[in-house]
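Protocol step 4 of 6.
Sequence for NAD(P)-dependent dehydrogenase (Short-subunit alcohol dehydrogenase family) (Mucilaginibacter pocheonensis) entered exactly as in the expression construct, tag removed. Do not edit the line below.
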Amino acid sequence: MESKFKIAIVTGGASGLGLATTKKFIENNIKTIIVGRNEEKLQTAANTFGPLCSYKVCDLSKLAVIPALVDEITAEFGTPDILVNNAGINMKKPFTEVTDQDFQDILQTNLTSVFVMSREVIKKMIATGGGCVVNISSMASQYGIPYVIAYTATKSAIEGMTRAMATELTPQGIRVNCIAPGFIATDMSAKALNNDPERKGKVLSRTPMGKLGSPEDIAEAVFYLCSDASRYVTGVVLPVDGGNSIGF
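Step 5 output, structure tokens:
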């Protein structure tokens, strides 16, 4: 981690929290490879950020392609110092209407692909003596939110996995931490909250800061957890939520 020029992989790096994180990394001279499914979005982001940003088109739910993807990134750019597991999907459905397939699909993208991606990148990190992994969780893991049972299952598992990874991998020089974002103003959340004034009112009333967060708030926290400023921090789940998780 001492080298001046770090290399980061950010999944889901072309929009929302991933895009803000990529911007923060680039501003701090970190070569960032963004991974996602939408080539147009990835290309736009890479063009915006310039030569320090590259992209790979990959559907991470297709687990079998991940080892080759990580080999390709390593061959092209060097061993990653940082992995941010940000890609994820959500589905809002009443509990009894969630099919077996619905549940498995969310599990595959939000959880199993995070495990496989982490495993493959960490193999490379161990060989070069260290690195940082940041997983992205959710308020759904901090308390109960209706209609998102599969999403909640994955995000709760991500937090448990963060602690298990940290205890096993930190002795090998790899710190593993997690961020639980509160309600952040993104295109996705705006659609959900603006169409549901009651839900928006509930969110704001239980957030002591009384406002939504910005993607930059998450990016700052990710950057902290990947920097030497947090060199004695591992295995934590950090809510960045304006107090939402403790609000009444």
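Step 6, annotate. The chain has one domain: 7-183+214-238.
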